[in-house]
């Protein structure tokens, strides 16, 4: 069940009679509605723990992710190597800490960049309408026809190992925004017909100002939610590409790459696959929980606002 | 009757288990005395009895007590009108009768049909009587029919659900019969149509056909005409009356429109905050309303049939939230008669007049009855602001907005990727009117008549497709650049219908009001000063400027819209149905505000509305539109008393008047069919296909109607202009 | 009706052409087949490198437009999609891989649709009950789990089961290992191979059908016309089954049609983990071999599938929903 906005309901009934109502700022209201949900709080806690692990994991571990211990190859977890080692003698704890950081970095930057492009493109073609919209939509449809996964793989494969993660972000962003732009356009279309947009136009407010002051703020909640959920997709794509050997390359590492290393030894050294899997699932799951929580807190349509329509 | 071979495939009707025992109590005894209606006192046993009905919902905000102690009985052949504003609990009451409330509703009390208790029944048990013994017609006909099934299938389903053995040809015959009964032409062919091929009025007819398919004992009509135009409303009310006659069912008519009940109901129950506050026979209620709320409602409604010689009396404040009902009488915070004692205890329904079964719930009822208080005694009529400049004759005042022969076509798009233009629709075709300073011109017409398109054409400030628009002396065709256009925007503003969508939910009120000023490059201090001024001008506390629109009620939001429109001190204000989405008791306050503002600020109003009563009250002149054309233009008073165009006359005759005696004696012109599509080509008069006068004309005259387009002209009989070859005489009264 | 489909199809063909051409130029820009030979030890003679590259029409010393024109003419006139850097025909390599992918994905697609839609319908009718909460949580889990992780976990579990049973119940690589003539044994062998990748793909695929079908049905369940149906005397369950369900299946049908494309490109990970020589794996090989022509052919196949799906979706929704007119 979703929470609703009790504050606005109370005040709307008392405002006329002149009774002063405690006015909560919008931010406080959203925060209150967000933290009321246990699952969302759980998501935040998991995410913070993962972030701490990614930031400081390398510092508390005496092994470095690129410093192999040739005395222990594919060793199970022990006091020396907390999560065991991989076939190259690298410490898994250090590897996962570094790989998690890289996956988070790629996921977050990609998602933010993707949504920025999508928001600008989507609102612009919706607001201007006419032939701009028609051509804009045709391009979107056309880009959806190309299997983007293939193109990203192609671009990243061509990059060198060190800059690989940057090219990965560029590739994922270049082909990831298309679907979101369509969604944002649909939402902006319904906003375009709102009376307050018309009213602003009739007051002589400029197009660019209307987009910035009315359209974007009213889509903000949707953009924020999709940015958070977009991290899940970006991480999944990164994992898949790295796993296939066309993403992050050695000596750099990411969770997908560790999985690839472990895949060949699932029978003899299952921990190499299990630990990064757990980290990955915790990361994507926590982002999903946060995203769902934000959706319920931000979306005014997620619950009736307490009014009875009799 | 079909009841003889009634069989249900799931289970037997629960009504068969009853012994038909009727509760004989004071409530019933009282109702049997209600005789001041067209049908006299009720006879025999009631078919349905509702006692002490309570409905509550658990919501996030708390427990919402939607219905609190409703009692009534229904008799076959009689109509009970339940009247109330939004949030009064009337629709919840209706849904609880038929058992269609949501699962989170808690229903207590007793609802008996033929003596059988219905409360506490499972969905399966209730389904044996739904559609068979009790049926319902919903408010919004556009969404009430399943879009994927044909009309025929949907009517047949209601027959086959209760009579699975009915042979196919019989089902078909009955469907055709039902469609014919509700007045759908060519019923045989229309059976195969899908809902989207029907207009709103036609769909509501289908809904009525579905409701009466099994000849139910009770028909519940929940705001059946609210979503429809006034001429279609008249048609539907007639079909409903016919359906009642045909089935002999008891009808519960739920509405907020006092005019609708005045013509259709026998008894009335007025609800406020989930409770009945007054109940009487129809004539008693309109003649001597005794609860201050009822008085207020009757006083707040503009009357279409009398000249507007006094101001409307608004009821202060808003209805309470059902989650947080104030202690004592829920109306007391808004009641002019309220004393501190009123908020101590909630009064019950008590007899106003023992012999007539008239009940009202007010702590000061005795006083009201003894002193015979009328609504003018309870609600003092507010003083109007007298405009100083009104002395100046109309023709000496400057013309602020002039529209001549305006035309606007919309392209008709084909399907597919490259949507090619396959034709065009004349949304506006020959609109002519002019407004002078300080004057209100009403633009009236049904949906699809081109009112809103006309407004948008003016607001766009672009050269029209054809014809001429002149705003404050500037011909729009001669405006050269954006800067000039922006300069003109300062003097021309608009107010929209829906206060929910006309304010950006993410903007605090301060920014909402500052936006037009910033667009005109005012400086910060001036804006600050002006925002405070505007809040006071529209009667809102200036301290509320940092709140968001969602924290205001509908009426307050509309005041904010008005304040925003007035920000740059415009000379012309366009109002697009500004009060249509407000509750009756709130409407009067907004109308009065608009009148005061005009008197103070000398603004011209172009007031678009479909509600003729409001128009008669507020406007000086009126332009009647039909299918994109202005068909009659003149002084409001003259048009309402002596309509010259047959469409104007039909429109006026279709408005329900909130006076049962007038309603009963009036003869109504019911227009046949729907407004034709504007995509059609009309060689002659656009109204010819529905014109009630045309059949009375000679062959030659009829040819003229069909071949020659009438233009707006006048004659020596009065000052009104009309677009009709054969106008009506001035001695024909409209009401 | 035919005119509508023809118009749509024509637009899609134009779209496909632009998309494939775009891919061709991208692939030519980012792939360097020359490096395949230049990094070889011993390095082949320069003339032979040039000759091989010229034969495959992938020599970067030739203008990309010339190569493009040559490539396009061959496709249009001979339906020849070109050669790989090692001069093998792309057409020949593609066909068996499409077959293998089809074998793999058909079963799992059907299963995900049937199970996902059924689960969506089931949970929508039990909104706020524990069944809905349980399945929604599970669905969220499978929604976010990266496919590589899921497939590897399934492999781990299968190995554990095999070890516990003491003999091989599940094969974790390939599509077949039996080479005899006994049809029954052959089929059994096929099942042993296909079951794990099928489970993996089904779990990933059914989640979206479950969640979307649930949303669509919930939307329709509260529609006014369902209330009308109940007011006629249908019970809530009957009204949902006869009225709401049908409306809610329309968008699902559109999704199914669209999913045809992702069926082939979405199985890359699963094919690699279970070592199935399908289209996805071929694509990875093509990328790693700088095989421009094969990559573009695979992209073209994926794009064509998408558009066939889109066309089917158009036809399907127009057929089911009387409100959509095909003019």
TrEMBL record, chain A:
Q: Which GO terms describe its cellular component?
A: plasma membrane
Look up and give the membrane topology term.
Multi-pass membrane protein
Q: Tell whether Oxidoreductase is among the UniProt keywords.
A: no
The UniProt keywords, alphabetically, are:
Cell inner membrane, Cell membrane, Membrane, Peptide transport, Protein transport, Transmembrane, Transmembrane helix, Transport
Could you confirm whether the keyword Cell inner membrane appears in this record? Answer: yes
- What Pfam families would the database entry show? BPD_transp_1, OppC_N
Question: Where would you find this protein in the cell?
Answer: Cell inner membrane; Cell membrane
Which example biological process does GO assign this protein?
protein transport
The record ties this protein, via CDD domains, to: TM_PBP2
By its UniProt entry, which PROSITE patterns does this protein fall under?
Answer: ABC_TM1
Q: Which residues form the ABC transmembrane type-1 domain?
A: 100-291
Membrane-spanning segments: 40-58, 104-128, 135-159, 165-184, 215-236, 269-290
Q: Which family does it belong to?
A: Belongs to the binding-protein-dependent transport system permease family. OppBC subfamily.
- Protein name listed in UniProt: Oligopeptide transport system permease protein OppC
Organism, by scientific name, is Bifidobacterium ruminantium
UniProtKB/TrEMBL annotation, chain B:
Instruction: Provide the E.C. number(s) assigned to this enzyme.
Output: 3.6.3.24
Gene3D superfamilies attached here? P-loop containing nucleotide triphosphate hydrolases (3.40.50.300)
Q: How does it sit in the membrane?
A: Peripheral membrane protein
Q: Where would I find the ABC transporter domain in this sequence? A: 50-298, 412-652
**Recorded coiled-coil stretches:** none
Q: Which domain of life is it from?
A: Bacteria
- Which molecular-function annotation in GO is an example for this chain? ATP hydrolysis activity
Q: What is this protein called?
A: Peptide ABC transporter, ATP-binding protein
From TrEMBL, chain C:
Where in the numbering of this chain does the ABC transmembrane type-1 domain appear? 98-317
Tell me where the signal peptide lies. none
Spell out the GO cellular component terms annotated for this protein, sorted alphabetically and separated by semicolons. plasma membrane
Q: Is Transport set as a keyword in this record? A: yes
Q: Where are the transmembrane segments?
A: 12-31, 104-122, 134-161, 190-211, 249-276, 296-320
Q: Which Gene3D superfamilies match?
A: MetI-like
Topology in the lipid bilayer? Multi-pass membrane protein
Is-annotated flag, keyword Cell wall biogenesis/degradation?
no
Q: What keywords tag this UniProt record?
A: Cell membrane, Membrane, Transmembrane, Transmembrane helix, Transport
Q: Matching InterPro entries, A to Z?
A: MetI-like (IPR000515), MetI-like_sf (IPR035906)
| Any single GO BP term | transmembrane transport
Q: Where in the cell is it found?
A: Cell membrane
Q: Which Pfam families does the protein's record reference? A: BPD_transp_1
Protein family according to the UniProt entry: Belongs to the binding-protein-dependent transport system permease family.
Descriptive protein name: Peptide ABC transporter, permease protein
